[in-house]
Amino acid sequence: MIAGLPPQIGLYSSIFPGIVYSLFGSCKDITLGPTAILSALVAKYVAYSDDFAYLASFLSGCIVLLFGILQLGFILDFISKPVIAGFTTAAALQIGASQLRSLFGVSGSSGNTFVKAIINFFRNITTIQLNDSLLGVVTIISLMLLKHATIPVGPDSSSCRVRFAKLWVYVLRARNALVVFVGSILAYILYVQGWTPFALTGKINGGLPHFGPPPFSTVVGNRTLNFTDMLAVFGAEGLVMPLVTILESVAIAKAFAGSKPVDGTQEMIALGACNILSCFGQSMPTTGSFTRTAINHACGVTTPAGSLFKACLVLLAVTLLTDAFFFIPKTVLAGIIIVAMTSITEFGLVTKLWRNSKLELAVYSLTVLVGAGVGLEYGILCGAGLDVARTLAHAARPDLHHQLFKVGNQDCIILTLLGTLTYACCEHVPRQLRRRAGEHVHVAVLDARHVQRLDYGVAENLISTILDLEQNHRFLLWNFKESHKQLFEDIHPGFSGRFVNGPSIDQHILGLEPIPMR
Amino acid sequence: MIAGLPPQIGLYSSIFPGIVYSLFGSCKDITLGPTAILSALVAKYVAYSDDFAYLASFLSGCIVLLFGILQLGFILDFISKPVIAGFTTAAALQIGASQLRSLFGVSGSSGNTFVKAIINFFRNITTIQLNDSLLGVVTIISLMLLKHATIPVGPDSSSCRVRFAKLWVYVLRARNALVVFVGSILAYILYVQGWTPFALTGKINGGLPHFGPPPFSTVVGNRTLNFTDMLAVFGAEGLVMPLVTILESVAIAKAFAGSKPVDGTQEMIALGACNILSCFGQSMPTTGSFTRTAINHACGVTTPAGSLFKACLVLLAVTLLTDAFFFIPKTVLAGIIIVAMTSITEFGLVTKLWRNSKLELAVYSLTVLVGAGVGLEYGILCGAGLDVARTLAHAARPDLHHQLFKVGNQDCIILTLLGTLTYACCEHVPRQLRRRAGEHVHVAVLDARHVQRLDYGVAENLISTILDLEQNHRFLLWNFKESHKQLFEDIHPGFSGRFVNGPSIDQHILGLEPIPMR
Fold this sequence. Notes:
Structural class of chain A: alpha/beta
Largest interface: A-B, 54 and 54 residues
Keywords (chains A, B): Membrane, Transmembrane, Transmembrane helix
Largest sheet of chain A: 5 strands, mixed
Organism (chains A, B): Bombyx mori (Silk moth)
Protein name (chains A, B): SLC26A/SulP transporter domain-containing protein
Transmembrane segments (chains A, B): 52-76, 167-191, 230-253, 308-328, 334-354, 361-381
Oligomer: homodimer
Helix content of chain A: 55-70%
Strand content of chain A: 5-15%
Number of helices of chain A: 22
Domain SLC26A/SulP transporter (chains A, B): 1-365
């Protein structure tokens, strides 16, 4: 409905992606379906015609699949643990807050960020419904009790008791389904008696979707748009959809995978296949849904086949069970979602980051604040941006370890260069060299044993600094790679006389011509 | 005129920034003034009222000054040598091509990129003027001859000859002024005889500018806009102007500084002061101008006081010498600019980069291609973007040096971690550890002597990988910093038993419990 499509399209969009994902997906918890962000993105195209939604699914599926085939999964390495944790926290806050409305039967819209959801809730708080609130709170308390209940196996494990304990395990696992069932029965009984105290899910406009290839032409008003016209409507901006598809789904996959690696490339292939194939059955663009994934997780799903199970349930919902689903009280669903959310907020990370890495805590906080205040996707972008800035800052200001020592009566200093010396440190390294070489040092040694890469600009600036300081100092460039020596020689022919190799530097220092007295 | 302002504003905008820059500036060659890019940016505000141009100068000056005061000069470290060289080459190509029109007296506009200038030139080639072409080519040949002329000091250095040689040095240095002078005299003589064979510079609408504070309110149509309204007109997009101001000026400063460092912070302060103070004398936003800086450089300027000299000349041009400047043939100016451009293209870098660093050559090429085809500022952005991508790729895929060795009958491997291990390598490092630890290795040692920083995600993934592999391997974490040990212990209490210190690892390996037989 956010996308401006008939509500059943949202259900159709949960069926086929679920089936396809169970075949290609690699994350057990992920549940694919239409999401608020993607729906909002597709809405402006649907304003022309519904056909755009199905074509968008097909095209963005193709692009995501292409990303997967090109093995671009490595891009996801740039979404760090603090960003994922911040995203999770912000998403849980937002989703939890947006359910307050249904939980208390308050009217009005919920808002698409945590802050807006809270504001809207308190703005409409006078419309609170006692019955819904009561059932909602009872649902939450029941779920909490069932979640923390222990299995009653005493010392006298009689056959009957063991069997009861086994049953109890299943009851605990199925607690989400159980409260839905109990809530629906209650609503049904009261309904039969002529009383509807709760807001119910209501009629699902069902039936099976129409099958067929995605529309490559459409009619808008009295004008027929061919495929090229439709592409022009999407424009370059249309590329945002596949990017959001990947970003949302993989952020969720990483969030629920914990410290286990997520195969980004495989996820891209799965997501692409889901979007391409599902649009043959009237599906809009789909991606990982945080709420549904969290509920899946809370229900204890253990393999991607859970997606298939979910798809079957939705299929039942739109065909045979429309009447049964009618009676599910909205407040019960809200209660389930809120309980699922409480278990996934990652506040524990905050204290660990506080003790060990304040900068990463800043990344986490920025992601949470922007995510909860402006929007989840902006939260991820800001967090990832700060991470990139952090990486660039490290590249620009590498720590140069230095050590003073004496050989004979010469004061020497050794500066250790490490790893990759990129263009960004091409002012910093020569500046450090100039500072450390100071007045009292006769010989400065640059130790490049651990240098892997060295940019042109760094070499150029090092050369000009060394040539400049050589009136009062001697320089030795120790254990440079052959390729780096060549670079120095190429920039300044004759420079390579300063390069020395070998395990000990002392002999080379002793062999130096002394600096003429001033 | 690009900005939609009266032409004399362009001249006024060259006077005061020149004076102020001579006081605050740190780069000898830089010439400040209105540029094509800034003019195009300011044009849409001038469409409301000229007052916006002066206020834009004031406000963007304030922002640039603030950048300087906040010591944000380090941002400019992220514009690498290949980007600067690529920008220089693209700028020289574009400016040279845009002068072809004046050189050959061809009509039509010149276009704001190299590609467009060339296309426009050939589109209007039929309107070529013989006289202009002739004078232009003669100008270029004269300048080339003067530039490469040697000073005729023979073995018989008589006093007269020495004096002549000294004069000759000044003639060679003043060659640009000389050809302008000769060209103007020629045009004047022909003009007096009633013949105007060349396109001339023409009348400069002069007089002194009006002095006064920048306008904090203005009238558009019959509506008075106060300061807040004017700010609203600029909007967030107005922030592009100070950024372009900094980017253009510092790119030029770096290009002409060679391998000497450029003090970005001081340049920001100078640029800010120039824009703030000049707007009191009817000046639009100004920044470093590539063409004029290159001519300054070609004229052999040696201190920032050259700016003052230039400001005085422009002041003379708009007051006393309007008649003299009338006769300068445009083709002579075009010839001077083209010769100045030939001396600053940096094609020599290409071969050096080809031999030593193909990736940096890609950065250079991208900057040139985008700069010449789309626009100079886009060239810088694309080049800088590719540089950032390069840095991130290095951060994500650090080389891990490994070495196999034997202690007793145990096969061991040592993996050396280097520098900064950021979030981006948090999948890569554990993957490498898993691969290297392979089947035949009993003990894997992680050497962290040279690790400076280590992100949370890397530690977390290392721990889960080690715990996973520990059934078949023993792990030793060697020479980790105390802070890193604490991080590991914080994530997984009890993990710190694997940390060892000291110069030799062999004793620690011998002290390990053997792995139980399977």
